[in-house]
Amino acid sequence: MHNTVKVTDTVYWLGVNDRRTSFFENMWPLPEGVSYNSYLIVDEKIALVDTIEYGSSDDYLEKIEKIIDGRTIDYLIINHMEPDHSGAIKAIVNKYPDIKLVGNLKTFKIVESYFGYKDNWYQVEDGDVLELGYHKLRFIMTPWVHWPETMMTYDLAEKILFSGDAFGSFGSLDGGIFDDEIKFEEYYENEMRRYYSNIVGKYSNMVQKAFIKLEGIDIKYICSTHGPIWRNDINKVLSLYDKWSKFETESGVVIIYGSMYGNTEKMADAIARRLSESGIKKIRIYDASRTHISYLINEIWRYKGVILGSCAYNSGMLPTMENLTRTLEHIGVKDHLLGLFGSYSWNGGGVKALHKFHETMDWELVSDPVDTKGIPGDDAFERCRILADAMIKKLNA
Length: 397
Ligand code: FEO
Prior knowledge:
Elements (H helix, E strand, L loop, with lengths): L4 E4 L2 E3 L2 E3 L4 E2 L3 E2 L4 E3 L2 E4 L3 E4 L10 H9 L6 E3 L5 H4 L2 H7 L4 E4 L1 H11 L5 E3 L5 E3 L4 E6 L9 E5 L4 E5 L19 H4 L1 H12 L3 H11 L6 E4 L9 H12 L4 E9 L4 H15 L5 E5 L5 H10 E8 L1 E2 L2 E2 L1 H13 L5 E8 L5 H11 L3 E2 L4 E4 L4 H19 L1
Parallel strand pairs: 8-9, 9-10, 10-11, 15-16, 17-18, 17-19, 19-22, 22-23, 22-24
Antiparallel strand pairs: 1-2, 2-7, 3-6, 4-5, 7-8, 12-13, 13-14, 14-15, 20-21
Helix pairs in contact: 6-10, 7-8, 9-13, 11-12
């Protein structure tokens, strides 16, 4: 049985849930799964908006066929060429050989390098309108959200924004497809932030530029390529994206450490206890060797206070912490309060390396780093207390 889900009378959701893939794009764990959303607009002309990951559905073409009932698809709009959305392009072109591929010049350069297509292009520029009949599609170039070719498609007739990855989320759609059918805060917000921070976050300034382009556009639906469709509380998802792309955070602290023998971990607990005694309730501690980096980045995106600890390993940081700090540099995460701590057994190196990380970021160091030799004693714990107090003072400022 094929269930068809309509966004409006003539716009269909053709999403599929992927609960099998362990790592999205071989990097990010998917404990809650993910959906790949494709959309079909049936009008005098028929347009498909993005496709799905290759192999994620064996009945995608049948679902389309059932809806269009012997007609052909006139346009395939490629808002984003990444393979989780372009995976079915070849199958679509094979089945509908007269289809026009709609995209911008950058899209086509990638299309050509993936599929070799050169003569079935319909090139669009920013602001161009494609008329399907009732539906009129305007193309909005939003480069680098999060690939160079990314664009959005806005239906002037029904005020639908097909946004590509923007406003998307990890998490399969478990029955509920629309924002008013799900418990967003409970099941999706965290995964949406993990998606944003890890995949789109590096391009936050481009997200802000995209917002400028969307200003004044009346949006009734946001149809992203991942996660729920928004039709009830559009402002919620817009304001979350606005907040995250401005690096606005909550007043709380995430402590992340690398510890081989438990000494650095003891310091993490001492710092957290002091934060708690001073009334901070949002405190999270993570062992970087146990928790996947995508969750650590997500928590850093959430909280203003970041306290990083590392034991010394071959005169540097523990590799898991080194990986985290290098990734934070690469993403260019901004606007945090920072504390540093750690222990060592020979000559140190972990905290020194953390301090070098600080010099590459514009985060404010709240106090002197706490570096201690061996098992932390009263003096080390006293310095942890001073660090925690300095963090609280800055957080409350
Ligand atoms: Fe969902 Fe950037 O692909």
